[in-house]
Amino acid sequence: MKRIAAITKVFDTLYNRPFDYSVFNDRLLIQKTIYILQEMGMSIGDYSFKWHKYGPYSQSVQDDGFRLLSTQADGMIQIRFTDYGISILDNFRTLLNQKPHSVSTERWLEAVASIHYIKRNCLPLAADNELVDELIKRKPHFNDRGLVNLAVASANEISVPHES
Fold first, then answer.
1. Is 137 exposed, middle or buried (0-12, 13-18, 19+ CB in 10 A)?
2. How far, in Å, are 27, 44, 91, 128 from residue 37 at the CA level?
3. Tell me: the pLDDT tens digits for 135-148?
4. C-beta neighbour count of 153 within 10 angstroms
5. Are the CB atoms for 46 and 52 separated by under 8 Å?
6. Average pLDDT score over residue span 43-51
7. Using one digit for the tens of pLDDT, what is the confidence trace for 79-129?
8. What is the DSSP letter of 73?
9. Which residues share a beta bridge with 55?
10. pLDDT at 78 over 90
């Protein structure tokens, strides 16, 4: 129940609207958002991710999103972010603000999360141009090298902030 409440709180906080499991783009957004936030050091539910058609994917995130359909809002556990959690959300917002205006948030996060996943799990020693080539090979719809280069730069900035 706590993980479901965390998904809801994160989505509401970052996107200023409720998560809607029935909308594909919301499911894509929550997958990439949770992946990136965890990689930034936020404790959300210790979800594990594997490679999928749309980049990093967690069946547990998908299952928790589905469970949200049958959860009453008034019975939901209240979640409050710590100062550390707020700093991670601020870093995530910075990543969102790096998105080119011509690109949807979903497509941007898919590119950034995918690049990060490839670098972390498949090609840890790859140079940036190799990451660009690998993403385009795996996802031909990301054929805009300029966009992918921006995504690589953003993915390279994903790190765990130090707690004060």
1. exposed
2. 15, 8, 9, 22
3. 999 999 999 999 99
4. 13
5. no
6. 92
7. 889 999 999 999 999 999 999 999 999 999 999 999 999 999 999 999 999
8. G
9. 52
10. no
Give me the phi and psi of 100, to 5 degrees please.
-60, 145
- Hey, is 28 helix, strand or coil? helix
Task: Please report, as a single letter, which amino acid is at residue 89.
Answer: L
- Please report the pLDDT score of residue 75 as a whole number: 55
pLDDT at 34: 97
Cα distances (Å, whole numbers) of residue 129 to 93, 115, 119, 156: 25, 11, 12, 13
**What is d(CA 99, CA 104) in angstroms, rounded to the nearest whole number?**
8
How far apart (Å, rounded) are the C-alpha atoms in residues 114 and 154?
A: 11
Longest CA–CA span in the chain (Å) reads 49
Give the type of residue at 164. S
How large is the average pLDDT for residues 15-28? 93
Unique residue bearing structure tokens 């404790």: 43
Q: Which amino acid is at 37?
A: L
Which residue type is seen at 91?
A: N
Q: Output b/e per residue, 86-108; b: 16+ Cβ within 10 A.
A: ebbbebbeebbeebeeebebbbb
The mean per-residue pLDDT over the stretch 48-60 comes to: 96
Query: Could you tell me the two tokens for 155?
Result: 């993915």
Residue 125 is which amino acid?
L
